Amino acid sequence: MRILVVEDDTAIADALQVSLKLAGHAVDICTTLAQAWSALRVEPFDAMLLDLGLPDGDGVQLLARVRAGAHSAAGAGLPRSDMPVLIMTARDGVDQRVAGLDGGADDYLVKPFDPQELLARIRAMTRRSAGRARAVLQCRDLEIDPAARTVTQAGLPVALGAKEFALLQTLVEASPQVLSKTRLEAALYGFGEALESNAIEVHVHHLRRKLGADLILTMRGVGYFVPRDQPA
After folding, report:
1. 132: how many CB neighbours lie within 10 A of its CB?
2. Class of domain 137-225
3. What pLDDT, on the 0 to 100 scale, is given for residue 91?
């Protein structure tokens, strides 16, 4: 999952980046509203963690701008208006929390917070956004646990690399939508991460070898997808 962190405190931003990357997410950091809006307009982020007190304004301004936008597809020049957003701030007053949630935030977390609680809240709000009640993803004989970052097939554990797991989760969550190579790269890699030109093809090859050649299908010239209804 590709997450945008909007936080001007370097120590907090660095700690968040480490925690989120260890959990398998691609992470980008912005320290101002202007940087964040520019990033949102060019990359399809899956979620945003938003501080309120920023050098060039209040985070609620960015939140309002996102929520006011059209429900646009990635690359259309506007971020998704329904993108999950979690406010993380030292403002702990009830009125402030109410204002943040009524302003469009999906969740509100007061600093300081435990990294594990933050990860759980991210999983919960993205699950709600996708319309899923269960924490574990199921696909044919696969069970994918985003919290434990484990995959079992027919009840047996399957060892996957971090990017392989992220790719599998992205494709299963989007099923049966076809995702382009560019979209998958954006979901798996942050701005500064090294990316080989054939990285997605390599990860898909590894997943097919480990989980079966018919799990991930190719639509030639378009991208990859996992069919919604697959035979048992």
Report:
1. 12
2. mainly alpha
3. 86
pLDDT tens profile 208-219: 999 999 999 999
Strand partners, 86: 49, 107
Strand partners, 224: 179, 218
Please count the other Cβ atoms lying within 10 Å of the Cβ belonging to residue 223.
18
Contact of 186 with 43, CB cutoff 8 Å: yes
Are residues 178 and 222 in contact, defined by beta-carbon separation less than 8 angstroms?
A: yes
CATH 3.40.50.2300 fits 2-129, yes or no: yes
How is residue 179 annotated by DSSP? Answer: B
Residue 77: its pLDDT value, please?
A: 65
| Every domain of the chain and the residues it spans | 2-129, 137-225
Going by C-alpha positions, the residue among 142, 209, 199, 221 that lies closest to residue 175 is 142
> pLDDT tens digit string along 4-55?
999 999 999 999 999 999 888 999 999 999 999 999 988 889 999 999 999 9
DSSP secondary structure code for residue 111 in this structure: S
Residues, the chain:
232
Closest CA to 22 of 169, 195, 162, 167: 162
End-to-end CA distance of the chain: 28
